[in-house]
Here is the input.
Amino acid sequence: MRAIVVGAGIGGLSAALALRRVGVDVALYERAPELTEVGAGISLWANALRALDHIGAGPAVRAVAMPMRRSEFRVRDGYRVAASYPAAAFEERFGVEPFVALVHRAELVAALARGLPAGFARCGYECVGVEPRGDRAVARFKNGHADEADLVVGADGIRSVVRVAVAGPGEPRYAGYTCWRGVCPRPPGVDPGYVGEWWGRGRRFGITTLAGDRVYWWATKNEPAGGRAGDERGYVDEAFRGWADPVPELIATTPPDRVIRNDILDRPPDRRWASGRAVLIGDAAHPTTPNLGQGGCMAIEDAAVLARSLRGGTDLDRNLEAFIAERFPRTSDITKTSWKFGAFGQWEGRLSCWVRDGLFGTVVRMVGSRGLLRYATYDTGPLLAAGPAGASG
Here is the structure.
């Protein structure tokens, strides 16, 4: 079998690694002129780390990651600790180390790419369409190039061109809040391995430590879609003025041109992931708000399950249906839960936030931590498993 993978981000690289591991001939195309990622971090939970082990990339990713040592939720602009969890307890309970790996996205992409032959990804190829051709599919690119294969795998993100060929056009939905992200030096008061999420009224702030004495931070605020400020760092600095330390310092020590702003988007779950010898994975299939830290993790899982589903099969339609049947319940559950959790975090009414913050520790223990553990303890199973593997999610 020959497959074309469109998009060489986290999902596309993982798919290329996984498919090659089960004997599929893979061509990988990327629209950007080089393999890179935005200046931001990502948390890879145990479920993603297991999947990376199955596709052979686990050691390379762990080598550039920092293990999470402590996670913390705070409320009231970061001045009150509502819940705190030591990672060691999870690692001992579930036998996975680290339970969460903290890594810069660019370094994750580079680690995945090192598992492929040099120059394997064809950069500068922007896909403009996918067409069925009998029992094969043709991918067409803006530079005039065309390629044909048994299968086209769309790993090209939330505004996927491959998705249009599979499910038709349609805009993603706006969650009602925008997000700023940045990477800065780690201040002395933030311990290595720390991950924190701090809530205010209509605002949240996240802190994730990275290797190399760095911190990746993110900040959300309820805003109309499509907004822009002339000085994004100045805007977010003003929005979080008065928050507990080290929030002001993290913003101030980030270069102004390195503050990234993106509206938070997803799509309601839609089972149309495959059509005409094309299939979707990652954000092309199930874009998810980032509130549970599972977006990139699910893309890696998709890659492993797709490879296992295609391994040795001769009925491609049936194999793709098996892939979707296995993945859709889990991904749709995470997408819906993440949307609700984000909306909860973005409440801004004075009374509602006072009640929310007072009950926050209890709510997180009863709902949030259980859900996160349920998602994180999932295992896709090895690529060469004899049959369906892993928890149902």
